[in-house]
Amino acid sequence: MPFASYEHEGRCHIGRVEGDEVVALVGPSELGRETTTEVLASLVESGVRVPVTDVRLRPVVPQPDKVICVGLNYKAHVGETGRDMPEYPVLFTKFASALIGAYDPIVVPAASAQVDYEAELAVVIGREGRRIAPERAHEHVLGYSVANDVTMRDYQYKTHQWLQGKAWEGSTPLGPYLYTPDEVDVAAAGLRTILNGTKLQDSDTSLLIFDIPTLISTISEFTTLLPGDVILTGTPGGVGYRRDPQVFLKPGDEVVVEIDGLGSVRNTVVLERA
Ligand code: MG
Question: β-strands 115-116, 254-259: how paired?
Protein backbone atom coordinates (compact mmCIF):
# COMPACT_ATOMS: atom_id res chain seq x y z
CA MET A 1 0.00 0.00 0.00
CA PRO A 2 1.30 3.44 -0.88
CA PHE A 3 2.34 6.25 1.44
CA ALA A 4 1.09 9.83 1.54
CA SER A 5 2.17 13.12 3.12
CA TYR A 6 -1.03 14.88 4.15
CA GLU A 7 -2.65 17.49 6.30
CA HIS A 8 -5.73 16.81 8.42
CA GLU A 9 -7.31 19.21 10.88
CA GLY A 10 -4.25 21.43 10.80
CA ARG A 11 -1.69 18.70 11.45
CA CYS A 12 0.71 17.01 9.05
CA HIS A 13 1.20 13.27 8.88
CA ILE A 14 2.65 10.42 6.90
CA GLY A 15 -0.02 7.85 6.21
CA ARG A 16 -0.54 4.51 4.58
CA VAL A 17 -3.33 4.55 2.06
CA GLU A 18 -5.71 1.61 2.31
CA GLY A 19 -8.49 1.82 -0.24
CA ASP A 20 -10.46 5.01 0.39
CA GLU A 21 -8.82 5.66 3.74
CA VAL A 22 -5.50 6.84 5.05
CA VAL A 23 -4.04 5.56 8.32
CA ALA A 24 -1.68 7.92 10.14
CA LEU A 25 1.76 6.53 11.01
CA VAL A 26 3.66 7.33 14.21
CA GLY A 27 6.88 9.30 13.73
CA PRO A 28 7.96 11.88 11.15
CA SER A 29 5.17 14.19 9.92
CA GLU A 30 6.13 14.02 6.24
CA LEU A 31 8.17 12.02 3.76
CA GLY A 32 11.63 13.55 3.36
CA ARG A 33 15.11 13.65 4.85
CA GLU A 34 14.13 11.57 7.88
CA THR A 35 12.30 8.84 6.02
CA THR A 36 15.04 6.57 4.78
CA THR A 37 14.02 3.24 3.33
CA GLU A 38 14.64 1.61 6.73
CA VAL A 39 12.67 4.22 8.68
CA LEU A 40 9.70 4.04 6.33
CA ALA A 41 9.60 0.25 6.62
CA SER A 42 9.59 0.48 10.42
CA LEU A 43 6.83 3.06 10.96
CA VAL A 44 3.82 1.73 12.87
CA GLU A 45 0.19 2.70 12.46
CA SER A 46 -1.38 5.10 14.94
CA GLY A 47 -4.82 3.62 14.51
CA VAL A 48 -6.21 6.99 13.40
CA ARG A 49 -7.97 6.35 10.10
CA VAL A 50 -9.80 8.94 8.00
CA PRO A 51 -11.26 9.03 4.48
CA VAL A 52 -8.74 10.23 1.91
CA THR A 53 -11.34 12.76 0.76
CA ASP A 54 -11.16 14.42 4.21
CA VAL A 55 -7.45 15.26 3.99
CA ARG A 56 -5.34 17.60 1.88
CA LEU A 57 -2.62 15.69 0.13
CA ARG A 58 0.64 17.59 0.32
CA PRO A 59 3.43 17.16 -2.24
CA VAL A 60 4.42 13.57 -1.55
CA VAL A 61 7.80 14.90 -0.41
CA PRO A 62 6.95 18.43 0.77
CA GLN A 63 10.45 19.72 1.52
CA PRO A 64 13.11 17.76 -0.35
CA ASP A 65 16.72 18.87 -0.09
CA LYS A 66 16.87 18.71 -3.89
CA VAL A 67 14.51 18.41 -6.84
CA ILE A 68 16.59 17.48 -9.87
CA CYS A 69 14.84 17.42 -13.22
CA VAL A 70 15.86 15.89 -16.53
CA GLY A 71 15.16 17.60 -19.84
CA LEU A 72 15.01 15.96 -23.26
CA ASN A 73 14.82 12.39 -21.99
CA TYR A 74 12.36 10.88 -24.50
CA LYS A 75 13.26 10.57 -28.17
CA ALA A 76 9.88 11.90 -29.36
CA HIS A 77 10.27 15.00 -27.19
CA VAL A 78 13.84 15.62 -28.36
CA GLY A 79 12.52 15.26 -31.91
CA GLU A 80 9.72 17.79 -31.48
CA THR A 81 12.16 20.35 -30.03
CA GLY A 82 14.46 19.97 -33.04
CA ARG A 83 17.47 19.46 -30.80
CA ASP A 84 20.27 16.90 -31.07
CA MET A 85 20.03 13.73 -29.01
CA PRO A 86 21.78 14.43 -25.70
CA GLU A 87 24.93 12.49 -24.85
CA TYR A 88 24.69 13.47 -21.19
CA PRO A 89 21.42 14.10 -19.30
CA VAL A 90 20.17 17.70 -19.45
CA LEU A 91 19.76 18.57 -15.76
CA PHE A 92 18.07 21.46 -14.00
CA THR A 93 16.51 22.06 -10.61
CA LYS A 94 13.37 23.21 -8.93
CA PHE A 95 12.98 24.42 -5.36
CA ALA A 96 10.74 22.77 -2.79
CA SER A 97 8.56 25.91 -2.97
CA ALA A 98 7.62 24.94 -6.55
CA LEU A 99 5.87 21.77 -5.34
CA ILE A 100 2.14 21.41 -4.70
CA GLY A 101 -0.12 18.53 -3.73
CA ALA A 102 -1.76 16.18 -6.21
CA TYR A 103 -5.10 18.01 -6.21
CA ASP A 104 -4.03 21.56 -5.34
CA PRO A 105 -4.69 24.33 -7.85
CA ILE A 106 -1.85 25.27 -10.21
CA VAL A 107 -1.49 29.00 -9.72
CA VAL A 108 -0.29 30.58 -12.96
CA PRO A 109 1.12 34.10 -13.22
CA ALA A 110 -0.55 36.68 -15.43
CA ALA A 111 2.98 37.51 -16.63
CA SER A 112 3.27 34.24 -18.58
CA ALA A 113 1.23 33.54 -21.69
CA GLN A 114 2.83 30.13 -22.26
CA VAL A 115 2.17 27.82 -19.31
CA ASP A 116 2.75 24.23 -20.41
CA TYR A 117 2.29 20.72 -18.98
CA GLU A 118 4.84 17.87 -18.81
CA ALA A 119 3.91 14.36 -17.62
CA GLU A 120 6.79 12.84 -15.67
CA LEU A 121 7.73 9.85 -13.55
CA ALA A 122 9.19 11.02 -10.22
CA VAL A 123 11.81 8.97 -8.37
CA VAL A 124 12.28 9.52 -4.61
CA ILE A 125 15.58 8.63 -2.96
CA GLY A 126 15.58 6.55 0.24
CA ARG A 127 19.26 6.00 0.97
CA GLU A 128 22.10 8.51 0.89
CA GLY A 129 24.75 7.93 -1.73
CA ARG A 130 27.59 9.45 -3.71
CA ARG A 131 29.06 7.99 -6.89
CA ILE A 132 26.41 5.30 -6.98
CA ALA A 133 27.10 2.63 -9.60
CA PRO A 134 24.18 2.06 -11.99
CA GLU A 135 23.90 -1.57 -10.92
CA ARG A 136 23.41 -0.48 -7.29
CA ALA A 137 21.07 2.44 -8.00
CA HIS A 138 17.95 0.44 -7.09
CA GLU A 139 19.23 0.20 -3.50
CA HIS A 140 18.83 3.99 -3.22
CA VAL A 141 15.24 4.26 -4.48
CA LEU A 142 12.55 4.81 -1.85
CA GLY A 143 9.76 4.81 -4.39
CA TYR A 144 7.94 6.43 -7.27
CA SER A 145 5.29 9.05 -7.82
CA VAL A 146 3.72 11.25 -10.50
CA ALA A 147 4.64 14.84 -11.39
CA ASN A 148 3.52 17.52 -13.79
CA ASP A 149 6.61 19.60 -14.59
CA VAL A 150 4.57 22.72 -15.31
CA THR A 151 6.70 25.13 -17.31
CA MET A 152 6.39 28.79 -18.24
CA ARG A 153 7.87 28.48 -21.74
CA ASP A 154 8.25 32.21 -22.35
CA TYR A 155 10.30 32.43 -19.16
CA GLN A 156 12.18 29.18 -19.83
CA TYR A 157 13.46 30.48 -23.15
CA LYS A 158 14.47 33.94 -21.98
CA THR A 159 18.00 32.52 -21.58
CA HIS A 160 19.89 29.26 -22.07
CA GLN A 161 19.28 28.46 -18.40
CA TRP A 162 15.75 27.20 -17.79
CA LEU A 163 15.44 27.93 -14.06
CA GLN A 164 12.97 30.85 -14.19
CA GLY A 165 10.59 28.89 -16.39
CA LYS A 166 10.79 25.72 -14.32
CA ALA A 167 10.89 26.76 -10.68
CA TRP A 168 7.82 28.99 -10.50
CA GLU A 169 6.43 28.91 -6.98
CA GLY A 170 3.43 26.65 -6.46
CA SER A 171 3.49 25.22 -9.97
CA THR A 172 4.49 21.56 -9.80
CA PRO A 173 2.07 18.84 -8.63
CA LEU A 174 3.84 15.86 -7.04
CA GLY A 175 1.82 12.88 -5.82
CA PRO A 176 -0.67 11.60 -5.04
CA TYR A 177 1.25 8.83 -3.28
CA LEU A 178 4.63 7.18 -2.96
CA TYR A 179 4.74 3.58 -4.17
CA THR A 180 7.69 1.49 -3.05
CA PRO A 181 9.58 -0.54 -5.68
CA ASP A 182 8.20 -3.84 -4.36
CA GLU A 183 4.68 -2.62 -5.12
CA VAL A 184 5.02 -1.24 -8.62
CA ASP A 185 7.13 -1.89 -11.71
CA VAL A 186 7.90 1.32 -13.55
CA ALA A 187 10.13 -0.22 -16.23
CA ALA A 188 7.39 0.14 -18.88
CA ALA A 189 4.59 2.17 -17.33
CA GLY A 190 2.24 4.15 -19.55
CA LEU A 191 2.14 7.88 -18.79
CA ARG A 192 -0.34 10.41 -20.14
CA THR A 193 -1.45 14.02 -19.93
CA ILE A 194 -5.16 14.72 -20.30
CA LEU A 195 -6.23 18.36 -20.62
CA ASN A 196 -9.96 19.06 -20.25
CA GLY A 197 -10.65 15.46 -21.27
CA THR A 198 -8.34 15.42 -24.32
CA LYS A 199 -5.26 13.20 -24.25
CA LEU A 200 -2.22 15.27 -25.27
CA GLN A 201 0.68 13.06 -24.18
CA ASP A 202 0.66 9.26 -24.31
CA SER A 203 3.91 7.36 -23.90
CA ASP A 204 5.73 4.77 -21.86
CA THR A 205 8.63 4.95 -19.39
CA SER A 206 10.48 2.21 -21.29
CA LEU A 207 11.28 4.97 -23.81
CA LEU A 208 13.46 6.98 -21.42
CA ILE A 209 16.77 7.81 -23.10
CA PHE A 210 18.67 7.84 -19.78
CA ASP A 211 17.10 5.23 -17.51
CA ILE A 212 16.71 5.55 -13.75
CA PRO A 213 19.98 3.78 -12.81
CA THR A 214 21.88 5.99 -15.26
CA LEU A 215 20.28 9.15 -13.86
CA ILE A 216 21.02 8.20 -10.24
CA SER A 217 24.61 7.34 -11.15
CA THR A 218 25.13 10.51 -13.20
CA ILE A 219 23.65 12.89 -10.61
CA SER A 220 25.41 11.27 -7.66
CA GLU A 221 28.77 11.74 -9.36
CA PHE A 222 28.63 15.47 -8.54
CA THR A 223 26.30 15.64 -5.52
CA THR A 224 25.31 13.40 -2.64
CA LEU A 225 21.79 12.12 -3.10
CA LEU A 226 19.87 12.27 0.18
CA PRO A 227 16.71 10.58 1.40
CA GLY A 228 13.72 12.53 0.12
CA ASP A 229 15.51 13.94 -2.91
CA VAL A 230 13.27 13.88 -5.97
CA ILE A 231 14.31 13.20 -9.55
CA LEU A 232 11.84 14.16 -12.30
CA THR A 233 12.82 11.91 -15.18
CA GLY A 234 11.67 13.98 -18.15
CA THR A 235 8.59 14.22 -20.35
CA PRO A 236 7.62 12.45 -23.58
CA GLY A 237 6.48 14.12 -26.80
CA GLY A 238 3.28 16.09 -27.11
CA VAL A 239 3.99 19.13 -24.95
CA GLY A 240 1.75 22.12 -25.70
CA TYR A 241 4.54 24.43 -26.89
CA ARG A 242 5.48 22.05 -29.71
CA ARG A 243 1.94 21.34 -30.94
CA ASP A 244 0.43 22.99 -34.00
CA PRO A 245 -1.48 24.99 -32.97
CA GLN A 246 0.19 25.45 -29.62
CA VAL A 247 -1.73 24.58 -26.46
CA PHE A 248 -1.20 26.36 -23.14
CA LEU A 249 -2.83 26.06 -19.75
CA LYS A 250 -5.33 28.76 -18.88
CA PRO A 251 -7.44 29.53 -15.84
CA GLY A 252 -10.33 27.09 -15.48
CA ASP A 253 -8.54 24.21 -17.22
CA GLU A 254 -8.28 20.80 -15.58
CA VAL A 255 -5.04 18.98 -16.29
CA VAL A 256 -4.42 15.36 -15.32
CA VAL A 257 -1.12 13.49 -15.45
CA GLU A 258 -1.43 9.75 -14.90
CA ILE A 259 1.04 6.88 -14.77
CA ASP A 260 -0.04 3.26 -14.80
CA GLY A 261 0.28 1.80 -11.32
CA LEU A 262 0.98 5.18 -9.66
CA GLY A 263 -2.33 7.01 -10.04
CA SER A 264 -2.69 10.60 -11.15
CA VAL A 265 -2.32 14.25 -10.22
CA ARG A 266 -5.37 16.30 -11.15
CA ASN A 267 -5.23 20.06 -10.93
CA THR A 268 -7.33 23.05 -11.80
CA VAL A 269 -5.52 26.07 -13.20
CA VAL A 270 -6.14 29.36 -11.43
CA LEU A 271 -4.72 32.81 -12.06
CA GLU A 272 -2.31 34.24 -9.49
CA ARG A 273 -3.70 37.30 -7.75
CA ALA A 274 -1.53 40.33 -8.24
MG1 MG B 1 10.26 18.26 -17.65
Answer: unpaired
